[in-house]
Amino acid sequence: MLLVAFLPGKCYTSIMFNWNIISFKTVESTNDTARHYPCGTAIIAERQTRGRGRHGRVWQSLEGNLFLSVVLSDWGAKTPLLAFVFGLAVIDALPEIPLRLKWPNDVLWDGAKVAGILLERIDDRVIAGIGVNLNQAPINHVLYPTKALGGFLTPPELANRILACLNTLLTHVQNNGTAWLLAQWTSKASGLGQSITVKLPTETITGIFKTLSPDGALVLSLPNGTEKNISAGDIFL
Ligand code: BTN
């Protein structure tokens, strides 16, 4: 495992918010590496040999894509909302592309997944792993169509942009609260007000994606007139 610090003076470090960015050639998973570091650390790797996604799925870690994990303090009961901050940070970091958010943790371009976020809690810290299909899209993805952004940025350039956007977003949330965050997220959401299908561990249900609850659950209006709050699941638009 080769540790390669970002080159000083090349705009890789965010001076304003002092992220400690550590770059690796190859790791199993940047989320696993990040566990050994304190809050304020960002881990980036050129390769992952055992990248993972939500629900224990494999995250195909293809060459030239971004594998970034950030260590933050948790938000107590509101920790799941951090995924919304990271989704928005990816969108804000790529103003060239009309990206949308897909509940809970995905970023879409033209309806295809280009980025995913994995939040893992370790004691009072959260490891937020961000995978962006910058250069290549996984093939044979069983759950959703996928797409790559076209490789117009290098992974370190995109990481640097994301970290800068994260700082701005975290400052806004600190000043304006999580209601602001939810409003921002819903303004960029795919499928809001539309009929969607939600795959839960034991059932698949269809309803209208009405809104988000204050804790970030998806509020689904069911055909029988009731509402169901869903905290975890895969949605299909
Ligand atoms: C998902 O959509 O299921 C979340 C995917 C998260 C992938 C990233 S890549 C960087 C970090 N390291 C991992 O092993 N996973 C996350």
Offer a concise description of the structure.
This protein has 237 residues and is α+β, with helices and mostly antiparallel strands. The protein has helices spanning 30-34, 82-93, 155-176, 178-187, and strands at 3-5, 20-27, 41-48, 66-73, 99-102, 106-109, 112-122, 125-132, 195-199, 204-212, 218-221, 227-230, 234-236. Helix content is 21%, strand content 33%.
Key traits:
SH3 type barrels; 4 helices; binds biotin; alpha+beta; 237 residues; globular; 8-stranded mixed beta sheet; 2 domains; BirA Bifunctional Protein, domain 2; 5-stranded antiparallel beta sheet
Describe this structure in words.
The protein is α+β, with helices and mostly antiparallel strands and 237 residues long. The protein is 21% helix and 33% strand. It is built from 4 helices and 13 strands. The protein has an 8-stranded mixed β-sheet. Strands 12-11-10-9-13 form a 5-stranded antiparallel β-sheet, with no helix packed on it. α1 links the parallel β2 and β3 (41-48). The radius of gyration is 17 Å and the shape is globular. Bound molecules: biotin.
